[in-house]
Amino acid sequence: MSGLAAEVPSTLLSVRGGLIVSCQAYPGEPMRHAETMTQIAESAVRGGAVGIRAQGLADIALIHERVALPQIGLWKDGHDDVFITPTFEHALAVVRAGAEIVAIDGTRRVRPDGLTLAETVRRLHDETGTLVMADVGSFDDGLAAEDAGADCVGTTLSGYTGDRPKTEGPDLELLAALAGRLAVPVIAEGRIHTPAQAYACLTAGAFAVVVGTAITHPQSITRWFADAVADARAALA
């Protein structure tokens, strides 16, 4: 982990160097239920997680009630461009549901409510005192997010905004560049599918590592194994 020039809030310090587990289910899936996501979060605690990332107001509220770890909350609304907690009102609802940190789209794209990223962050700080995690897709996004006042920056959107290619695993190049430049914590997130990749993120300078699919999404995990078995079967035929 790189050294930090900025004073880091205690909530963020509590997750430094640790694993944050993202407990999310896609719409239409059997696990898309607040109770199920909360149970997964509780299991993650037992496994050594230092924080939880969750989506949706019901999930955030129940996890806040039952899990005594810092929670990064977000509200996905829409499918294109800015959809991770896209407006100030979305962010305010996430805070009211109980998230200690609110994750918002931290790119330089136009936000649906017309507010700039800096205006959104400033209002959240002034009106709620909540920490803000900016999910970015590029190096320039990260610089702009820090300038806008974000308390931490995540590599969540790397490969999904058109600014950078979608790497097979985590975007270690972007992670290292941001960690070496920003004064705020840089959190690794996105396509971290193995313990070795999580290890690589920490050595590349990540303040903390968020893992979701590889821990909390059995449909994807099953598909990985099913595809491997099918490949083996075809090779043996």
TrEMBL record:
SUPFAM superfamilies: Ribulose-phoshate binding barrel
Assigned GO CC terms: cytosol
Extent of the signal sequence: none
Biological process terms in GO annotation: carbohydrate metabolic process; N-acetylmannosamine catabolic process; N-acetylneuraminate catabolic process
Reaction catalysed by this enzyme: an N-acyl-D-glucosamine 6-phosphate = an N-acyl-D-mannosamine 6-phosphate
Domain of life: Bacteria
InterPro entries: Aldolase_TIM, NanE, RibuloseP-bd_barrel
Listed Pfam families: NanE
EC number: 5.1.3.9
Keywords: Carbohydrate metabolism, Isomerase
GO molecular function, one term: N-acylglucosamine-6-phosphate 2-epimerase activity
Enzyme type, top EC level: isomerase
Pathway: Amino-sugar metabolism; N-acetylneuraminate degradation; D-fructose 6-phosphate from N-acetylneuraminate: step 3/5
HAMAP family from the UniProt entry: ManNAc6P_epimer
Task of the protein: Converts N-acetylmannosamine-6-phosphate (ManNAc-6-P) to N-acetylglucosamine-6-phosphate (GlcNAc-6-P).
NCBIfam families, A to Z: PRK01130.1
Similarity annotation: Belongs to the NanE family.
Protein name: Putative N-acetylmannosamine-6-phosphate 2-epimerase
UniProt organism field: Subtercola boreus
Lineage start: Bacteria, Bacillati, Actinomycetota, Actinomycetes, Micrococcales
